[in-house]
Amino acid sequence: MARKDSIDLAGAAGLTVFAAALAFNQVVIKLSNAGIGPVFGAGLRSVFALAVLAVWCLVMRRRVDGLGATLWSGLALGGLFSLEFLFLFSALDLTTVSRASIAFYCMPVWLACIAHFTLPGERLSARRLLGLVLAVAGVAWALADPQSRGAGDLSGDLLAVCASLSWAGIALVLRLTRVSAISPESQLVWQLGVSALVLTAVGWAMGPLWRAPDPLAFAALGYGVIVASIGFLFWLRLMTIYPASDVASFSFLSPVLAVGFGWLVFDEPISVSFIGAMVLVAVGIVLINRRRPGKGAQDKRRGAPV
Prior knowledge:
Helices cover 77% and strands 0% of the residues. The chain contains 14 helices and no strands. Helix 1 runs antiparallel to helix 10.
């Protein structure tokens, strides 16, 4: 499909579906945790997602190469991916979907802060700084909300923040190291391959691997496998068709939808105050991801994300 200069109806529909799939993934992780140890479950997800990716590459005749030339950066990428899901699965074992999602999906905030000092062309403009302030204020407001705080756990909230920081680290490794030159499939091999080994080993050492396994827990695990493999490849495909800044602007939907799913599935409390905090986070993420007209071409020349 030819490259497009803006999001059309098909792209908007695809990105909305993908944002909903990511949001529902938080619910799925919590359901999976009920039957499988959190870290071990994260490891199993990577194992099966790696198998799905292998089938995809065989059927679609995609080559996985460049792994030897990207050993150290690839291990860093896989290590951060392992940390991200160790923290996220553990967070959702302790706190609510709503609170974990608000903290986790603030990754663009942390990335914008770090990129200001490390990436060319990624200085914090007045608009992006405003977005950063709004998003951080929204997270603080959401986590301080008395109604949601009673249902959550501060340690789980902090683990979700750590998962978000790990996610930002992945984005930086993909920008600043040699793994940026290999194919998306190869990048995903590093992430899933390393995490499959690390998370299953850590999960084995952390305690019981199984809690109360039932069909629902295994169905939840299967959903996570699809999101971690086919879902990620679908998103990368959209990135090759539409401007990356337009694609990124849809990221505000995931925390909003995740809060809704948490209320729908687990009856998590949502106060007016929490909704106000969520709106601040969403507006902040949109402001951080937006670019000036004509900025996309400049960013491409500088090697910055567009």
